[in-house]
């Protein structure tokens, strides 16, 4: 039976010459692939080759990868994370020097309601951070004294091979995840008892963004061991706050892919497009080019008034409005790779050209964003960055004729929260709103209006990854409340405000790494008015709406 061979060449002079030569000789078809690769398809063996080198991915290779064009994440990343955790725990005098084990339970499959169909599996983040395991239903433990890492996998009945393909052996899993030992989950108690485990450290703690608690490990026979569920949580959460160089590499990758996907979306948007078609373009780019099967949160693709709805895109309003000429668009979307999140927002005019009012609000937010990017560095308080951003924004709104009076007095009166009812940004990592915002020993959540929504009040350190996402929104219920409050209404110019009722909003969101010397902005998208207009102008008259394409087919 004839099958296909794919040969990949770099899209440079030599690559293109080889492509042409080969296509002439073998009468095969040529496809252009992203990431500067040309592909030649011909009949032959079903293998993928890269200039004579086989690039078929070995599924048991100790890494996470989704094809040669994507990032290879070696399991040493997770070994490094475990090492960092062990270093902290060994310094903690409450942890016994012998017989103590970290004991984690991984995520489980979640079905659609009462059916036998599951949601695509998402690994529990602490488990992912420690082991990088892709399968559901696993457990993992680490001997704190020796550092030995052990994974436990569900013992699947032989007939599962019919549905799932060849079942992997424990030896396969040991190689795949680069751990010291592997067993089945029905052996946990026996294995721990053979190892004379005296104390199990399980994970129990509150996520300060959701209020939910981390799932504490439970297994048959746990009753025979002493368990402590207090020690582990603050230590492992603190470890997750500071990213290792290997984690940073993954974050840079997922932020880069997400940036490119946003740019592709901006060039696909024009009046007449449905908002969800922008979402669809993002998902397609992130997955097909970046190997990102998941996004980090539901895509927010608001146009016009919807741009003022902070978490637009939820089930009740599933990005289903037709984008109109003159709309501002606020698209907040981030891909996910190997569990690691990106979280980027681009705001741009639907037709590619800003109006004067759109420009004024956009530049007010951009100035706030830039002020933070210029000041942020280790040792700086996140609360101060939020207040700085508020101050710059309100100063610009005053210049734009929307506000009058002293800006510091406005902040004291809570005007910041009227136009930006969310915090400046948040920690980001395996979770888009990453853990560690309010750990014991960190500054507590502020209570004052304007800053009480912050997801962390920490002093910044090198290795932290955060979003910087100032915004300015015209939200009717907040504006009405402010106008009804004499302490706030005295700063507002109602006639000018009327121009912006139903107008929507602007958010600019970058993903940043705090470095020793300051900051690295990992996001790379057009940001100034000029950059956005220039980027969107290219090919604008040739944009074809998907619905027009469909009509052509019919
Ligand atoms: Mn965000």
UniProtKB/TrEMBL annotation:
Keywords, sorted A to Z: Dipeptidase, Hydrolase, Manganese, Metal-binding, Metalloprotease, Protease
Molecular-function GO term, any one: metalloaminopeptidase activity
Keyword Protease applies: yes
Assigned EC number: 3.4.13.9
Segments forming domain Aminopeptidase P N-terminal: 73-211
Pfam families, per the entry: AMP_N, Peptidase_M24
SUPFAM superfamilies assigned: Creatinase/aminopeptidase, Creatinase/prolidase N-terminal domain
EC top class named in words: hydrolase
Keyword Metal-binding: yes
Reaction(s) catalysed (UniProt annotation): Xaa-L-Pro dipeptide + H2O = an L-alpha-amino acid + L-proline
Cofactor(s) in the UniProt record: Mn(2+)
GO biological process: proteolysis
Family that this chain belongs to: Belongs to the peptidase M24B family. Eukaryotic-type prolidase subfamily.
Subunit structure: Homodimer.
Descriptive protein name: Xaa-Pro dipeptidase
């Amino acid at each position: 039976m004839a099958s296909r061979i794919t040969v990949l060449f770099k899209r440079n002079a030599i690559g293109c010459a080889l492509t042409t030569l080969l296509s002439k000789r073998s009468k095969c078809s040529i496809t252009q692939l992203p990431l500067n690769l040309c592909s030649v398809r011909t009949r032959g063996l079903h293998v993928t080759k890269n200039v004579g080198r086989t690039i078929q991915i070995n599924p048991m290779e100790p890494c996470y990868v989704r094809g040669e064009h994507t990032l290879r994440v070696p399991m040493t990343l997770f070994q490094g994370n475990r090492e960092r955790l062990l270093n902290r725990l060994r310094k903690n005098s409450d942890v016994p020097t012998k017989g103590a084990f970290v004991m984690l339970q991984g995520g489980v499959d979640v079905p659609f309601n009462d059916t036998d169909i599951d949601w695509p599996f998402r690994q529990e983040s602490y488990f992912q951070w420690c082991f990088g395991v892709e399968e559901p239903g696993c457990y993992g433990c680490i001997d704190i004294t020796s550092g030995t890492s052990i994974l436990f996998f569900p013992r699947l009945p032989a007939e599962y091979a019919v549905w799932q393909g060849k079942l992997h052996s424990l030896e396969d899993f040991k190689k795949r995840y680069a751990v010291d030992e592997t067993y089945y989950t029905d052996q946990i108690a026996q294995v721990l008892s053979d190892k004379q485990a005296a104390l199990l450290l399980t994970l129990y703690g509150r996520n300060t963004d959701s209020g939910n608690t981390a799932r504490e490990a439970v297994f048959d026979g746990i009753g025979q061991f002493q368990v402590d569920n207090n020690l582990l949580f603050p230590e492992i959460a603190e470890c997750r706050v500071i990213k290792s160089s290997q984690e940073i590499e993954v974050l840079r990758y997922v932020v880069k892919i997400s940036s490119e996907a946003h740019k592709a979306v901006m060039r696909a948007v024009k009046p007449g497009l449905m908002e969800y078609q922008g979402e669809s373009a993002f998902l397609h780019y992130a997955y097909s080019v970046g190997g990102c099967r998941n996004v980090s949160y539901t895509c927010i693709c608001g146009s016009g008034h919807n741009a003022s709805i902070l978490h637009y895109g939820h089930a009740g309003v599933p990005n289903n409005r037709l984008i109109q000429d003159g709309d501002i668009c606020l698209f907040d979307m981030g891909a996910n790779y190997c569990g690691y999140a990106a979280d980027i927002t681009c705001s741009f005019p639907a037709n590619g050209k800003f109006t004067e009012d759109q420009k004024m609000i956009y530049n007010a937010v951009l100035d706030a964003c830039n002020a933070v990017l210029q000041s942020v560095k280790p040792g700086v308080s996140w609360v101060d960055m939020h207040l700085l951003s508020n101050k710059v924004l309100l100063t610009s709104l005053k210049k734009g004729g929307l506000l009058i009076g002293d800006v510091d007095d406005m902040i004291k009166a809570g005007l910041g929260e009227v136009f930006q009812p969310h915090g400046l940004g948040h920690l980001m990592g395996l979770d888009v709103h990453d853990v560690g915002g309010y750990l014991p020993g960190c500054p507590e959540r502020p209570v004052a209006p304007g800053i009480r929504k912050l997801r962390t009040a920490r002093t910044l350190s090198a290795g932290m990854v955060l979003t910087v996402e100032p915004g300015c929104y015209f939200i009717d219920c907040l504006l009405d409340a402010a106008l009804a409050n004499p302490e706030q209404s005295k700063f507002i110019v109602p006639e000018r405000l009327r121009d912006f009722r139903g107008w929507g909003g602007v958010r600019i969101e970058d993903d940043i790494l705090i470095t020793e010397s300051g900051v690295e902005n990992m996001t790379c998208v057009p940001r100034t008015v000029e950059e956005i207009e220039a980027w969107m102008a290219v090919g604008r008259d040739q944009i074809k709406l998907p619905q027009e394409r469909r009509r052509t087919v019919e």
